[in-house]
Amino acid sequence: MNALDGAARSARRPLRVIPLVELILLAVLLFLPLFVSDFHTIIVTRMLLLCMLAISFDLCWGFSGIMTFGQALFFGMAGYVIALLANKAGFVQIWGIVPIGMMVGLVVSFFIGWFLLLGKRTPTIIFVALGTLTASYAAERMVAGWQWVGAGNGMSIWDFLRFGSFEIEPGQLFYYIVLGFLLIAYLGSRWLVRSQFGLVLAGMRQNEERLAFFGYRVQAFKALVFSFAGMIAGLSGSLYAHHEGFIGPGSMGIGLSTFAVLYALFGGVGTLIGPLLGVFAIETIAFTLSDQDVIKNYWPVILGIIMLVVVAYKPAGLLGFVVSERERIGTYGLGSGGGGKGRGRGSA
Amino acid sequence: MGVALLEVRGVTKTFGALRALDGVDVTVEAGTFHGLIGPNGSGKSTLLKAIAGAHFADGGSITFDGSEITRTRPADRSRQGLSLKFQITAVLPELSVYDNVLLSLQAHQSIWTLLRSQSKHQLHGEVMDALERFRLADKADALAEELSHGEQQWLEIAMSLTQEPKLLLLDEPTGGMSSEERRVTGELLEPIRAHCALVIVEHDLDFIKDICDHLTVLDSGKVLDDGTVEEIERSQKVQEVYTTRV
Amino acid sequence: MSRQTNGLSRRGFLTGASALTAAGWAASGGLWVLKPEWAHAQGPIKMGIATDITGAIAPGGNSNWQVAQFTVKKINDSGGILGRPIELILEDTASDPGVAVGNVRRLIQQSEVDVVMGGITSAMREAIKNPIVRRGKTLYLYPQLYEGQECTPFLWCTGPTPAQQCADLLPYLIKNGAKRFAMPSANYIWPQLLNTWARRVIEENGGEIVFEEYYPLDQLEYSATVAKIMNEDVDHVFNTVIPPGLQAFTKQLYEAGFQDKGGTSSCVYFDENAVNYVPERELEGVYSCLDWFHTVDDPFSKQLLVEYAEMFPDTKYLFSAGTGSTGMYRAIKLYEQSVITTNGDLARDAVAAALDSASIPEGPGGPAKVVPGSGHVAMNMYIGRANNGVWDIIDEAKMVDPDECGET
Question: DSSP letter string over B216-237?
């Protein structure tokens, strides 16, 4: 055994930081409501909902090479449908709201994805980015002018979310329900991107053309991921509408869509956990900055500068400070060590 | 011998004012290694790409294993058994060598199978076999971008072969290799003859003469001569072109 | 609460945060708290003000804010409500309903106020009424003129309704020769419902509507609208466009020569602040109908103005009806009355019951009386016409019925 062998062995099994980050975050989130006031629990619940939106973006760009500036479209559309159900039909049952929100997200993203991604020629990244941006913008203008959905006022949802006759008010219970859904969305996404399907996605984002030559129908993979991401955005939007008690054009416009991009970029794309960190970091900074009345009118500028500096200095985002590039890339197959019981390890 | 695996008939391809291919006929028989040579700009790569589906021929026809593939998409040609190794290595740099091969091996599976990662274990043996055959087994966990240039070429060939194509197209496989690496490449390719034909575009005439049975010589988009290696070596027409053009 | 000193006027127009600090407000985690000067065994009565200190609606928000301080100071200077002082807590709703939801939550959950006054635009009211009334289970008084049809329990509207704004003004205009009306409007609910009322009154009185159109809030291009007004013989423009479109619209209308040709217009949220939105020459001759103008000949109102000017000398935030600050005064005073009626019981249901029949004998523009069961307030209404930047009172109607929420 010489130094080289030892080095080789440690190169083959580097320290895996991501599971550690995941566990720490999970522990913090699980116990948080027990230590903070209801008011703060509600603020964090809102962040958890935005986490799902950020994951939705990361699945597209970080894993599949689809730059989308329209994730808020699916989020907001689900929110609007759910608000209409509550206000016009009096339906607020959570066991209905959640599947409906997911369906709305899935269906709308499927159609947009079909239009943008599936076609004779492979669309460029810019084309998809602009297409989603346009869709999000158009939707925002449409609802802003439509009286039936509250136009510029948006809609207030008067009744609380319910399970049977039990009312779910924002607070600890709502927090844990959202945390539960976030976990499901996170684990589901992780399963997706670590599978052999995920290997194809990894190949796609490095060299799409090459994959076509292997025989992969790349556009079908993209459409699938895009719809799955849309579904998660819809899930998040439906719960968000009830949590905030309010939905407006801003919930489906390019402002929020861009924030989805920023959360993921800031935290670290292509990792699923990175976007979560991005949400917590950005929202916490925004929350604390906006309270300092000295900079009350300028805090968005400061937030923007912070984000710019991080993204420029560390393109891998916040997560890049603790996670190696090799771990971020991960492995999909059994590796040379496999042949016995092996599981895919990886970044996501 | 004699089963025509690939038939190229009267293929033309124009890029603006340039007529890159001007009525090319080539026949490749199953079980043969067929070389495409010619001076720079003769249309070798263009022809190869047309066969692979990287672009489509403007005129003429290409028939592979009995089916017309002139306008078929690359993904579908691949499914029919035609595989291409690019001139510029196109391994996935940010994946491990192992994962690169796995990616090529699992390509024809259904999306549902892939989602459930059903074939990971079954394919393990095949992956390691392919890696061993191409002398990459000890680099299995390294990232593809960490390999030497020659090793990347072998990886690419390995990936192209994993899909058990009936015809493999190689575009300048020994580009940038040392003479030792070139020799190894020839060794690595020989065993596939039993089940896969080869069309290979090359500049290195020694390499081509070593491994190919049959050669087609192109010049300015037309077939200059066509025949066995010995025939071409003796061919007057070919010698003229190779001596008058630098 | 410290009185505003001359130091403030030397520094000129202080706005926002620095003005607050100078006035003795303490910043506390994003809220502004004005603590009373004396303590009471039961603690102070906590009054939350949720209004737009920053953003597009800041001019109105700051007026509301200052008038709230002024009104509460008067109450506290007289011993508070039944001996208990009022503590004012301010939350900036930042002219952004999405943001406001979170900020108002903080008012309810962290500050635990007994009542909330605020909101200016209907969009804001719509967004914050849920966290205040439903989720927060707290009383909410909305001070601004609006489109009506807000019948949510535990929510009182102390500003004029469409009925109150239209009942007098439109018949007056028609009697004085206006027959053909145009309705250029901002595309949101206040103009839409106001126009419905206006249309009814206009048509009942023999007038006719030439067009009723809605524009996006950020539209700055009105040449098509102005052309229509000029070409189709419109006598009177019943204007409900709001900033930022307002300035562009009035400028384009003026430049087309509408006033020169004898056309008149009205804008029923125009008050003494209108000169800040619109140049005097564009304002000349424009009508408005509100619950108060500074020119109203009422001694109590005039005294209020004097005292307000003492507290906020040279302030650009006026105590005026278009900003909702008259409604803010009314809301605070009606609340005071109700707590006196309940003998100090601050529980929501008790105060609500008392509010339902509360009244104040005097205020800006005159008395005010809650119409039981309606959640709205009867008040005097005045028709004003701009004359060199000052509002001449053309007509007045006493204790006009709000005509909302089922009661008639």
Answer: EEEETTEEEEEEEHHHHHH-HH
